């Protein structure tokens, strides 16, 4: 039996808050008045929960009281077999689903999570992060955490090697190796989050928005499962140690262990925002299909090989565009379809490659950009009707004519790209 294919970033991160199902969307609209009342009420209760958690010392009694008060806020925390939790371990390793995972696990046991992305100050402290005063490299952070863990009176560390929250349904991000350099024995913690009506977390949402949505929905259930401790093998590198723990957590959660990182999440959100701003942007499913039309034999190839394949695809559709221009734009978009749209829409200026485009390219008759003249030269096949039109006297008519030519060029490029991709698939094994 073949292992399941690794999911792409579009399956690991949710970019929309509301459900796509019509019935769930109707239920959300009917629930909205009740949710708004709960939101206002829970804001006042949340202030009291914060004050109580600050006033009481860290103890079993404090965690019990705060946990009961959090249930009023809609945060229901469940743990399976708490006897598996090792009180002597110094580092907990958990998957990351929401921006409040560390607060939830802190309701079950005393632990500290260092602040990595939050600015130091009152907000960082009020969110439950531990400030180390280290703003340098990861090596300095690891040394500081080792010094912290060497004092047995300090609570254990709770670390999230994914370094970015996923939706928790499809897969785990690649674990960073630095958390596994702190201690030779770690205890994995499997975390699952369930919430009705709306998405558990949105990739580019702030923690304030996530908190308000948590107060809005009727409840959010956190399920915490403690796994047995995992020691480091003899002379095992931190990278291999991290991969082994990642595989254990993926099996426990029933998801796939991927090689995507937090940087891939950032690039994915940039591509989504960039695609949504294009005037003739394709649908997200079409853009994803175009981005994954790289042959399967190159799926695991090095980065330069994958980029070269993408450059070749764009070059086949737009032969008059220089290779260097295509390569520079692909480095920013990492998407074949978006790069083609940028070149056709004139967002990227270039001088047509005469060796590729031929010598029959017409010279620009107006003060259009060099890219526009090259595009018009390649449009002889798809839009002969538009090329045959006379120069309009009215500025409005000239604008409409330009838009028609641009749309025809874009349609032609997409058809040619689809035909070449289809031919490549039919010619493959």
From TrEMBL:
Main location: endoplasmic reticulum
Any one annotated GO CC term: endoplasmic reticulum membrane
Domain of life assignment: Eukaryota
Molecular-function GO term, any one: ubiquitin binding
Entry keywords, A to Z: Endoplasmic reticulum, Lipid droplet, Membrane, Transmembrane, Transmembrane helix
Record field: transmembrane: 23-52
Matches recorded under CDD domains: CUE_AUP1
Residue stretches making up the CUE domain: 306-348
Membrane-related topology note: Peripheral membrane protein
Pfam families per UniProt: CUE
Subcellular compartments: Endoplasmic reticulum membrane; Lipid droplet
Entry's Gene Ontology BP terms: ERAD pathway
Region (Disordered): 355-398
Biased composition regions of type Low complexity, renumbered to the chain: 362-394
PANTHER family: ANCIENT UBIQUITOUS PROTEIN (PTHR15486), LIPID DROPLET-REGULATING VLDL ASSEMBLY FACTOR AUP1 (PTHR15486:SF96)
Family according to the record: Belongs to the AUP1 family.
Protein name in UniProt: Lipid droplet-regulating VLDL assembly factor AUP1
Organism (species): Strigops habroptila (Kakapo)
Gene: AUP1
């Amino acid at each position: 039996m073949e292992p399941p294919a690794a999911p792409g970033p579009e399956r690991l991160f949710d970019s929309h808050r509301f459900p796509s199902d019509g019935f769930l969307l109707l239920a959300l609209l009917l629930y909205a008045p009740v949710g708004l009342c709960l939101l206002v009420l829970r804001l006042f209760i949340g202030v009291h929960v914060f004050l109580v958690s600050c006033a009481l010392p860290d103890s079993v009694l404090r965690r019990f009281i705060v946990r009961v008060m959090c249930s009023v806020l809609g945060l229901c925390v469940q743990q399976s077999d708490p006897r598996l939790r090792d009180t002597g371990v110094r580092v907990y390793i958990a998957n990351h689903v929401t921006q409040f995972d560390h607060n939830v696990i802190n309701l079950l046991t005393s632990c500290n999570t260092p602040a990595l992305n939050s600015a130091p100050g009152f907000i960082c402290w009020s969110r439950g992060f531990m400030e180390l005063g280290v703003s340098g490299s990861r090596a300095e952070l690891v040394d500081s955490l080792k010094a912290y863990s060497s004092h047995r009176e300090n609570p254990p560390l709770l670390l999230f090697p994914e370094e970015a929250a996923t939706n928790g349904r499809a897969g785990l991000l690649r674990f960073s190796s630095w958390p596994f350099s702190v201690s030779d024995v770690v205890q994995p913690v499997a975390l699952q989050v369930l919430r009705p009506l709306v998405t558990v977390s949105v990739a580019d949402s702030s923690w304030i928005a996530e908190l308000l949505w948590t107060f809005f929905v009727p409840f959010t259930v956190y399920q915490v499962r403690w796994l047995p401790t995992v020691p480091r093998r003899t002379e095992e590198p931190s990278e291999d140690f991290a991969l082994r723990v990642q595989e254990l957590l993926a099996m426990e959660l029933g998801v796939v262990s991927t090689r995507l990182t937090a940087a891939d999440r950032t690039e994915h959100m940039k591509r989504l925002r960039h695609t949504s701003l294009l005037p003739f942007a394709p649908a997200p499913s079409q853009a994803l299909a175009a981005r994954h039309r790289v042959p399967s034999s190159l799926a695991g190839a090095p980065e330069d090989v994958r980029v070269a394949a993408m450059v070749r695809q764009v070059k086949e559709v737009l032969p008059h565009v220089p290779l260097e221009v295509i390569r520079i734009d692909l480095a920013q978009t990492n998407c074949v379809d978006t790069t083609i749209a940028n070149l056709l829409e004139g967002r990227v200026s270039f001088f047509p490659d005469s060796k590729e485009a031929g010598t029959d390219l017409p010279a620009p008759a107006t003060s259009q950009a060099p890219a526009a003249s090259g595009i018009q030269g390649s449009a002889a096949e798809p839009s002969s009707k538009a090329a045959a039109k006379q120069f309009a006297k009215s500025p409005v008519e000239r604008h409409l004519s330009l838009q028609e030519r641009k749309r025809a060029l874009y349609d032609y490029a997409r058809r040619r790209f689809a035909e070449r991709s289809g031919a490549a698939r039919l010619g493959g094994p």
